[in-house]
Amino acid sequence: MRLRLVATAVITTAALAGCTNGGNSGTSPTPTSGAAGPAAVAYMDKVCGAASEFAKVEKTVPKLDSGDSAKLKADMAAYMGQLADAFTKSADGLKNVGPSPVAGGEDAVNKMAEAFTSLGTVFGDAKTRIEQADANDANGGLQAAGEAIAKLSELADPLRDLKAVPELQKATQSAQKCQEMQRLNITPTS
């Protein structure tokens, strides 16, 4: 019973994260006068394309209707692994977008990559803890899943580091992949 309660809390957190973090989080850049240069827009297309790779990785939320705690543990470990892979894929993409045409852009993108890398590590560690935990110990592995999912708030605004680079922030308004990313649900859903 306790295992089921912890698992329910973990999945509820994931579902809430999916509802609150997807699409336009209400923190979109404030338009300023003038348009961003074409080089900045092209660069932001690369950045947003890399960051949104997360949404393209298959992520299957475990079902809670199973009375088999060992299966639930295995499914939750697989889910944590899928999330770790998704974050890592976006981080790798961000690290490879190339030089910024705007001063400060590379620093902002590197911070974004670090955030994705950190989250990939958190979910990878959670997967390991779940795999190593006793399936009947609700305070073991599944608690690790809940802790990892709580970290998803760090992605509430994946482009927040661009606030320090106004031209790139402005370019997100014209970059097609940034507009697509705003419509994507970049966190897991139930």
Describe this structure in a few short sentences.
With 190 residues, the chain is mainly α.
Q: How does the SSE layout of this entry go?
A:
Layout (H helix, E strand, L loop, with lengths): L1 H20 L16 H14 L1 H4 L12 H27 L9 H28 L8 H10 L15 H6 L4 H8 L7
Helix pairs in contact: 1-6, 2-4, 2-8, 4-5, 4-6, 5-6
Task: Give an account of the 3D structure.
- The protein is mainly alpha-helical and 190 residues long.
- The chain has helices spanning 2-21, 38-51, 53-56, 69-95, 105-132, 141-150, 166-171, 176-183.
- It has one domain (2-183).
- The chain has eight helices and no strands.
- The model is unreliable at 1-33 (pLDDT under 50).
Looking at this protein, list some descriptive labels.
single chain; about 0% strand; mainly alpha; disordered N terminus
**Parts with pLDDT < 50 across at least 5 consecutive residues:** 1-33
**What count of helical segments does DSSP give?**
8
* Helix-strand topology string: HHHHHHHH
| Rounded Rg | 18 Å
Question: What can be said about the biggest beta sheet?
Answer: none
